Amino acid sequence: MAHVTVTAPINIAFIKYWGKRAGGETLILPTNDSFSITLSTEPFRSKTSVVLTDKIAEDELWLNGKKSDFASTARLTNVLETVRATSPPELAKLKAFIVSENNFPTAAGMASSASGYCALASALVRAFQSTADVSVLSRIGSGSACRSAYGGFVKWLMGKEEDGSDCRAVQYVDHTHWPEMQVLCAVLKGEQKDVSSTKGMQLSLQTSPMMKDRIETIVPARMEEISKAVTERNFDKFAEITMIDSDDLQQVCATTIPKVQYATEDSYAMIRLIHAFNKAKGKRVLAYTFDAGANCFMFTLKENIAEVIAVLLHHFPTADESLCFNDTSLVASYKAVE
Ligand code: 2P0
Fold first, then answer.
1. 46, 123: one domain
2. Is the ipTM reported for this complex over the cut 0.95?
3. Fewest C-beta in 10 Å: which of 15, 184, 266, 268?
4. Total-model pTM
5. Nearest alpha carbon, ligand 1 atom 8
6. Which protein residues touch ligand 1 with a CB less than 6 Å away?
7. Which of 157, 176, 195 is the last residue of a domain?
8. Mean pLDDT confidence for 237-243
9. Pfam families this protein is in (predicted)?
10. In the chain, how many domains are there?
11. Ligand 1, closest atom to CA 75?
């Protein structure tokens, strides 16, 4: 019986993906390039097991202990169809029993769909012996998931073709390029968000006056500038652009009709603290970034980690439980569990 178990990491974007272009809803083709760091599978990871069998009538997916409505989830169906179309016929005719689990809050702005779909795509490709590309298959499940298929610093290039053939994730530099870079996460709110990223970005694209400039000029310029900062390991520049792009995403959401707000009072308090800390240090030593959620991801260099954690715990004494420190923040890729 074919079976496989895979773990996959989350990735945190510092230049954000927020919008799909016309006709790109099924293939998930974005309106702009994005850029992220893939984290280690400790502490956060998705784990997916797939067993192929002729003993069940339909494919089944159990996510975090609950049975998913497979047939009515178009993305899951797309992923499975693509895998079967690229697999040997004797395997393609089998049904898949899938069990998946995240060891951190799901749908709370912590990139669970990225690690989740990457783990699913990777496990299915292995179990079905599919020739499909794991990153492309992950993207069909959830856009940002395509970046989790690679380690280190990863770009998701939007491409221009309607069929998505030039829309792909590429590793910019691997995890050894900037080993001093560390990532922290303050889990401020674990509940599921009210407005999904998928819905939020659709609304922003339709209604936020900021989106046109963001897509046409701002993000392309930022991609160039931050690529240079990563190449040169220039943390101050990296931090500056990272925080601006995070602020822009919040502004885009604030100017969306109806307004979308993922940040909470705690999120704003973190932002104020990080700016005050950098001011006191006389340079940027800590950067925040927020996705579609209240939780705060932070970047800093190894030399600052003790001071940063002390400052965070001093101002957020209750953060003890929720402050996750990713000691080996950059990893190679998803991996199969032996
Ligand atoms: C990102 N986010 O680049 C951005 C930043 C959230 C804010 O990718 O519709 O769950 O499944 O393609 O990938 C979240 O969007 O959306 C996301 P779909 P996804 O990481």
1. yes
2. yes
3. 268
4. 0.93
5. 144
6. 13, 16-18, 28, 34, 113, 142-144, 197-198, 291-292
7. 176
8. 98
9. MDD_C (PF18376), MVD-like_N (PF22700)
10. 2
11. 11
**Cα 198 to Cα 117: distance, rounded to the nearest angstrom:** 14
- On whether the CB atoms of residues 294 and 266 are closer than 8 A, the answer is yes
Residues 167, 26 share a domain: yes
Task: Answer whether residue 296 is part of any domain.
Answer: yes
- Do 254 and 146 lie in a common domain? no
Q: List the residue whose alpha carbon is closest to atom 7 of ligand 1.
A: 291
For residue 309, give its domain range. Answer: 181-326
d(CA 138, CA 145) in angstroms, rounded, equals: 5
Distance 303 CA to ligand 1 centre (A): 31
- Three-state SS letters, 313-330: HHHCHHHHCCEEEECCCC
SS (H, E, C) 150-197: CCCEEEEECCCCCCCCCCEEEEEECCCCCCCEEEEEECCCCCCCCCCH
* 68-113: pLDDT as tens digits: 988 888 999 999 999 999 999 999 999 999 999 998 777 767 778 8
